[in-house]
Structure formats: C-alpha cells, structure tokens
C-alpha cells in the first residue's frame, strides 16, 4: 500500500489529486491548515486528515509524528501555495512589489516546501519507492518569461514566479542529493483555482493530471525534472 501526503489538499488541485490517488488505491493524507475544512475534505474523499501549516515548524513536526505513528510515508506532494493579489484580483507589478510581499509568498511557496521536505525526509527514506512532487508553475521558467514571443511574457509580477523558480532549483538540488528518491517539479497549467481567482483556462481535473502521474512514479522513473503533461519544460 502506497501512503501519500498532499499539502493544501482541502480544495483545488490538492483535493483533486487526493481524489484520484485514493481512487487508485493510495492511502492519502489530506494536509490542511484549517482543521474543519481538512476533516470535511478527508471524509468526502475517504482519506485521512492531518493538520499541517507549511509555514509553522510545530505544525509540521506534529504532522510528521502523526504520519509516522500510522505507518510511514511513500509519496509527498508539495501542493500548498499562495500568491499576493490586490484589487480586482490583480497581481502587483514589479514596481509595486515590496519585500514584505516577497517574504510572504516565499514563506509558503519556498520555505514551506523546504520545511516539509526536511521534516519528512526520515520517513521517505524508509520507503522502498519514495517520491516527492513539487507543484511548480510555467511561470517558473526563466526561458519562457524572457521570451517576447511566449504567451507568459506578459506576466509582470515578481513574487510568485520567483518563488516557483526557487522551487525548481530546490527540486534539482534535492534530486541530486537523494538519488534513490524520485523528486520532480510539475507545471499543472493555467488551471481555474482560487489561487488565480478562477481565471484559469483549464479544469482542475486537467491540472491535476501531471501531479497524479508523477506521484505514481516507480523507482526507475525520472528524477530532477521540470515537466507538464506534454513532457520536459525549459528551465
């Protein structure tokens, strides 16, 4: 039996990923900051709930103890993420971005990923086929955002893409450090979720496809990659 933990899994891509993995037989932990919402989501999914705030050390440590007590962990999906938005759901332009806004986004999207991976590493290393999936973004690609012909070139905000570029680097470095683990960054695509005010152009089911695929990798699968449903992406 494969045991999987998904952060930020009470809604959106995390919830759909949990649903799909439960469907194929995984024992899934729904990680969520809000206990009521998390428990409700887990109950609807036939999953387990674990309270988990990726920005809080004590919360993460307690989650590790809970998961360890119930048997261990094989797959970690770092899905929890956030973006700063202002009036009319607009992201702040580069000139308006403050250090505090950057810090807020990085606390969840970058430091949260490191915090959770670091804490769960001992459990993952006991697994016969450990997998880590870091949910990144197409906006993480330096190649794409610096290309005037790319549709993503229009995106002017700083904090969110910078945080996801950092996630890609974290992915590469962890994959090198732990060659027996399958550690990859995935780009779900522009999915209609609360993160973007539901302005995305694809469904949550479509966005979850690559997360689910990479969460189900075997020990001979790829590692250290940055991919979407169509394959590798430019860094």
Task: Explain what the structure shows.
- The chain is an alpha/beta fold and 235 residues long.
- It has a single domain, classed as NAD(P)-binding Rossmann-like Domain (Rossmann fold), CATH 3.40.50.
- The protein has an 8-stranded mixed β-sheet with strand order 3-2-1-4-5-6-7-8, sandwiched between helices.
- Strand 1, helix 1 and strand 2 form a beta-alpha-beta unit.
- Helix 1 packs across helix 8, helix 3 runs parallel beside helix 5 and helix 4 packs parallel to helix 7.
- The N and C termini lie far apart (34 Å).
- The mean pLDDT is 94.
What percent of the residues sit in helical stretches (DSSP H or I)? 40-55%
The CATH superfamily label reads NAD(P)-binding Rossmann-like Domain
The CATH architecture classification is 3-Layer(aba) Sandwich
Oligomer: single chain
Total E-strand runs: 8
- Gyration radius from CA atoms, angstroms: 17 Å
Spell out the key features of this protein.
8 helices; alpha/beta; about 15% strand; about 240 residues; globular; eight-stranded mixed sheet; Rossmann fold
Tell me briefly what this model is.
With 235 residues, this protein is α/β, with parallel strands linked by helices. The protein contains 8 helices and 8 strands, in the order βαβαβαβααβααβαββ.
């Amino acid at each position: 039996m494969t045991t999987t933990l998904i952060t930020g899994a009470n809604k959106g891509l995390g919830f759909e990923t949990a649903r799909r993995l439960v469907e194929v037989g995984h024992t899934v932990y729904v990680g969520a900051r809000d206990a009521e919402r998390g428990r409700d989501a887990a109950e609807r999914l036939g999953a387990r709930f674990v309270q988990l705030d990726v920005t809080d050390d004590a919360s993460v440590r307690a989650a590790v103890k809970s998961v360890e007590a119930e048997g261990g962990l094989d797959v970690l999906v770092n899905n929890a993420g956030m973006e700063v938005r202002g009036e009319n759901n607009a992201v702040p332009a580069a000139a308006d971005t403050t250090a505090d806004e950057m810090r807020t986004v990085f606390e969840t999207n970058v430091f949260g990923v490191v915090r959770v991976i670091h804490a769960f590493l001992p459990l993952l290393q006991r697994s016969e086929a450990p997998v880590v999936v870091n949910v990144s973004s197409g906006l993480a690609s330096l190649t794409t955002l610096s290309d005037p012909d790319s549709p993503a070139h229009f995106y002017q905000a700083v904090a969110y893409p910078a945080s996801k570029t950092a996630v890609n680097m974290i992915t590469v470095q962890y994959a090198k450090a732990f060659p027996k683990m399958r550690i990859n960054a995935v780009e779900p695509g522009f999915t209609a979720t609360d993160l973007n005010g539901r302005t995305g152009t694809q469904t949550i089911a479509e966005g979850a496809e690559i997360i689910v695929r990479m969460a189900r990798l075997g020990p001979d699968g790829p590692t250290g990659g940055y991919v979407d449903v169509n394959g590798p992406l430019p860094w």
